[in-house]
Amino acid sequence: MSTHIPHTNLFKETLQPALLSSLPDEATLSTHLQRILDEIEEARQQYHIEEVDFLVYLAQKANQLPPPKGWIDWLEHVQSDDLCLACACSHHSEAAQKVFWQTYDKTIDQVLLRFQKSHIPPDDLKQIVMEKIFVGTEDKPPKLLKYSGQGFLENWIRVTTLRTCLDCVKGSSQQKREQLTEEDALLRLQDSDFDVELEFLKQEYRGHFKESFAKALTHLSSRERNLLRQHLVSGLNIDQIGTLYHIHRATAARRIAKARQALLDATRQELMAKLEISKNEFESIMNLIQSRLDVSMIRLLGHAPSVIQDESS
Are 244 and 127 in contact (CB under 8 A)? Predict the structure, then answer.
């Protein structure tokens, strides 16, 4: 049908030029593409993904892994629903992310059970897996983009989780020797404007600070430590953290703020105990720098009104 022609044109425009010569004839290609679009129609509407976005995504999969057995075989083996879910997640569809967690959370947990004896806490390991799949790094895109749609998404997730866990466990000993520990990396970030109070304490009581701060980290929950590591060390913003935890960005912002405050309070308590000073004596010290703290907080909260508005809605 002529209405199918735009689909084929868009698909071909996205393909690498070297793949065009082996494409089937226009009518055959159109029939296969329309079949795939028909199969994902309900899911596409649920995820609020446009046909053009999916067709571009589909062509990109062929660019990543050219059809080894020809186009007809490749098109017939496209796992339409799975690829649509991956496409929607890559486009940050909240509905798709919800379906992903409902469908594959147990799959990931089943793989993690194999690493129960690892020295890496299960929650930490799971967050690393999620970061690899959904966020990636500055030099490596999210692994989800590598899913070709030629096999079941569940199998791909299982293999990707297993490989990520093996890499983490295998490299952990070397990382301990060659890289900063999570605590050391967080300590280096205390020079930022946000932690003016901690920076003041570090200058006054440098000999006690590192030990108190490291001990304070142990008082935080695993989730709080993960949030601080992801936001401060890995540099994830509240939108990326929201994706990882499938929560609203305002909720992510609140949790980060709560974790930071918990770390600050725990550090304060540890220093008070170590220096053997009373609460009144400690508060007197804090009063001396209160104006500095207020100015810094106003400067740091300069971008916060939108978050505050979200929280009240």
Answer: yes
